[in-house]
Write a structure and sequence with these properties.
Elements: H1 3-6, E1 17-19, H2 20-23, E2 24-27, E3 45-48, E4 63-64, E5 69-71, H3 73-77, E6 89-92, E7 100-103, E8 108-109, E9 113-118, H4 124-133, H5 135-141, H6 152-157, E10 159-161, H7 165-208, H8 220-226, E11 232-235, E12 240-244, E13 261-264, H9 269-272, E14 279-280, E15 285-287, H10 289-293, E16 305-308, E17 316-319, E18 324-325, E19 329-334, H11 340-349, H12 351-358, H13 369-373, E20 376-379, H14 382-425
Amino acid sequence: MTESRLAPWLSASHWPTAPIRLVARLGSGHTPSRTKPEYWENCTVPWVTLADVWQLRDGRTTVITKTKEKVSPLGLANSSAVKHPAGTVILSRTASVGFSAIMGRDMATSQDFATWTCGPRLDPRYLLHALRGMAPDLKRVATGSTHKTIYMPDIEQLRVPLPPLEEQRRIAKFLDAETDRIDSLRAALQRELDLLSERRSAGVVAAVSGSTHNARQGSTLAWLQSIPAHWQEVRLGLLAQMGSGHTPSRSHPEWWVDCRIPWITTGEVRQVRDDRIEQLYETREKISALGLSNSAAELHPKGTVFLCRTASAGYSGVMGLDMATSQDFVTWTCGPHLSPYFLLWCLRAMRPDLLGRLAMGSTHKTIYVPDLQMLRIPLPSMEEQEEIVQSIRRQNARIDTLTDRVRRQQELLRERRQALITAAVTGQFDISTASGRNVTEGVSV
């Protein structure tokens, strides 16, 4: 792989560049054999694995001191794992590619990381910023269909701009301060997003419970205690026909020929996770009429409400076409006294309560059908239901406009942060006269 493909931004460097492995000792890690229980006893050495990447994803963690797992001295002695000294710079190179940090204490790593222990010509904090500057390129050139990987021969080719050591330290100090400032703004924007999300949820709860003048998030039980006197509290099964789905047997290949019927599976949950989407029109998979007729699957009419009850439990939508579902879903075909969209927003409003009270299981949460059969909902008149749905849509549209604006500001800061790092480590401006004050221009909190 060519140098220009690995880091095209190096061509703009005002400093000479050098292979990192010539100014820092390149290393990696290993996993001691799991078939040797004695290698996993008395584990005292911190061991960085992919389970620790969560600490590095936002780019704010500079030094890592704690790890989810540890290895034993015996395991280290009988494997290719190495205990690296504090100050060693690490880079994740498989699965979660391109995340980096500095070891705050002596540590080992799994084979998913490359490490550099800096020599006298390279400052670790400067190297860390340089690696973060090239992170987009590293992710771009990673290969693999399932898990992306940067292989060690490519790691060996990585180069870094190499100003004098004192200048490296000045650049690192400048970037520490400026990225902290940007990150504080990004955190403030995230708080805005969280507040907007809470406001959106509270507004939906208030609307479907008839308490729009006191919009507070609450549970299903609270709704039923505070609904207007002229509304009813009704068991959902009396207002809508409940159904489910099925997967036609894969042992009958002929049932999977000429598949044209949209078929909702857990793969569609990613669409309805976004509460902006009410109707579902596209599915990743389809089933055949033959498969449908030879299984317990049903073809539900357009306008049927569906709710995922396994894996990503609690997410719901409305069918935009005639569709079938897998057994992971329950459906409701509404009768004349219930609007599908009013029911949809009731289900979305009660989602935290559904998961909190009804979802069972330690690994994958499941909401069981008998519990869903007992659901009760508030029931205003059809005219009021329509007014409530339109009110929710208007309210959410206003909040979504604000949310999109904040997200654009977040993205702008992310881009400017990346550009600042790249420009600083390549010497494209004099950090002694720069304050980064223009980096956040146009971004408000």
